[in-house]
Specification:
The protein contains two helices and five strands, in the order ββββαβα. It is α+β, with helices and mostly antiparallel strands. It has one domain.
């Protein structure tokens, strides 16, 4: 008896990325500012639910978004997203 097994093997590729700091990028739901090798800020907007998160490693910030399509962004776009998140959080906090 002969059995055929199909096996998919994925290749893991490591790449080095050089960026000028501060570096801004965005995904569908996030705006990220990499400020230094040890500091990044992530602003999330998922259907009007906002969050702001400090990340303590630039390489980790790039890693967590490595499988997601990233688009370069600007300081202004990041600050707009940040202000929108702060306004939303403050509005919700006032109702508490």
């Amino acid at each position: 008896m002969k059995i055929t097994i199909k096996k998919t093997v994925e290749e893991e590729v490591e790449e080095e990325v050089e960026v000028q700091l501060p570096y801004f990028f965005k995904t569908v739901a996030n705006n990220v500012a990499i400020i230094s090798e040890t500091e990044a800020i992530q602003v999330t907007n998922i259907v009007g639910m906002f969050g702001i998160k400090q990340i303590n490693s630039a390489s980790y910030a790039l890693y967590i978004f490595s499988g997601i399509e990233k688009m370069e962004s600007t300081r202004e776009e990041f600050l707009d997203a940040y202000e929108m998140a702060i306004d939303s959080i403050n509005t919700k906090a006032i109702k508490i």
